[in-house]
């Protein structure tokens, strides 16, 4: 069996994946980030480390550490930590991938060095931490890492300072041509490469996890979205998945042909490394929705229109349509294809006859329309046709939402058998490395969708486009960064 440590945006889990692709045991620890001021998202990396070891130890105890062949690590990407090499103590807060405090640094990097960077990448987060938290510590005494790097460091007792290509490639510090760190960007931002981790394959033995009982070998590191891609069996060109969690991420496998650059493409997608082995690199493209499930949480926590997220399906299904109400889910701005950080959530078409079910349905359909935006952008930038759409994440269990997504995209929607496809993907990559499966295609072929939702309607995409125009640039002071 494989122990998978999966660190998400609001919590982390340690799970056991067996050779039949079933999750036989899971331990979950909530771990939400702090937001001390608007636009700031941070957390305590030391507390995260303690929770990781606690959850992993409990999972191993449940099945017996002697039964576990290897460890796979999946993690939120671009979240950034700087710590002392000798002590392992972080020098300041870890900056979450959603943190926007470095928009100014991104604009400066553009103006002074011609660098196209976004605040949700690692590059300017490192720059900020070095300027505001590291003090006068020499670069050689510090380590920089994303969450996968930090977890591997903790589990190996500081023996491994590593990341993989899937995580490195979204930092803003990665060179596609070199398949390694871009020293030109590092120099421009004042980042000494000595602080950066070694880049290793996504699937391959790294080092023993000496902090855990039995010291199983870490055999996979992978970004959460790429792990979900693998976990849903999207390992051939043209296969795509969307994870609808806090945000929404579409990843499309494009094959072994590398992209010409790591810049954002014409229709707002980014090239990614899907996964690597010792001798193979598989590429892809990614489209991003900045808020997905967050919009349902808004209905629960802030508007109190529903008691819990699961209730959104039942309430929305009380009406056949939104009766003209349209919602644009831009609580944090709009990602692909617009990339407008100043856009804001917009509710249109409300009348005296609008009732609670209309608004709840409009929110679900708005997220579905944004999902269709991602599909159209990925197909346009890649030149590939997506035959069907694999989905996972919390919203994938909502029947009203998945039907709306099938209708808006015009694609059959294959719902993952588990909301934890990220866990399965990291398990598959570790299992292939240690011989549980002979190849990734064999591992991915074990999983089947729980259900398939066929398109049954043709929503008004023209009205949707008009609604997005109304939501755009509501806060003009927040720029649309050209990355």
Beta fraction: 15-25%
CATH H-tier superfamily of the largest domain? ATPase, nucleotide binding domain
Low-confidence stretches: none
Shape: globular
Please write out the topology:
Layout: E1 2-7, E2 11-17, E3 23-30, E4 42-43, H1 45-63, E5 70-75, E6 81-84, E7 94-95, H2 103-113, H3 123-132, E8 142-145, H4 147-155, E9 162-164, H5 165-168, E10 174-175, E11 180-181, H6 183-189, E12 198-200, E13 203-208, E14 217-223, H7 224-231, E15 240-244, E16 248-255, E17 270-276, E18 281-289, H8 293-302, H9 311-316, E19 326-328, E20 346-348, H10 356-382, E21 389-392, H11 399-409, E22 413-415, H12 421-433, H13 440-444, E23 451-453, H14 461-471
Parallel strand pairs: 1-5, 5-14, 9-12, 15-21, 21-22
Antiparallel strand pairs: 1-2, 2-3, 4-7, 6-8, 10-11, 13-14, 15-16, 16-18, 17-18, 19-20, 22-23
Helix pairs in contact: 1-4, 7-12, 8-10, 10-11
Task: Describe what you observe in this structure.
With 483 residues, the protein is an alpha+beta fold. It contains 14 helices and 23 strands. The protein has helices at 45-63, 103-113, 123-132, 147-155, 165-168, 183-189, 224-231, 293-302, 311-316, 356-382, 399-409, 421-433, 440-444, 461-471, and strands at 2-7, 11-17, 23-30, 42-43, 70-75, 81-84, 94-95, 142-145, 162-164, 174-175, 180-181, 198-200, 203-208, 217-223, 240-244, 248-255, 270-276, 281-289, 326-328, 346-348, 389-392, 413-415, 451-453. The strands form 7 sheets. The chain has a 7-stranded mixed β-sheet with strand order 17-18-16-15-21-22-23. Strand 21 (389-392), helix 11 and strand 22 form a beta-alpha-beta unit. Helix 1 (45-63) crosses helix 4 (147-155) and helix 10 (356-382) crosses helix 11. The chain is globular, with a radius of gyration of 21 Å. The relative contact order is 0.13. The model has no long low-confidence stretch (mean pLDDT 94).
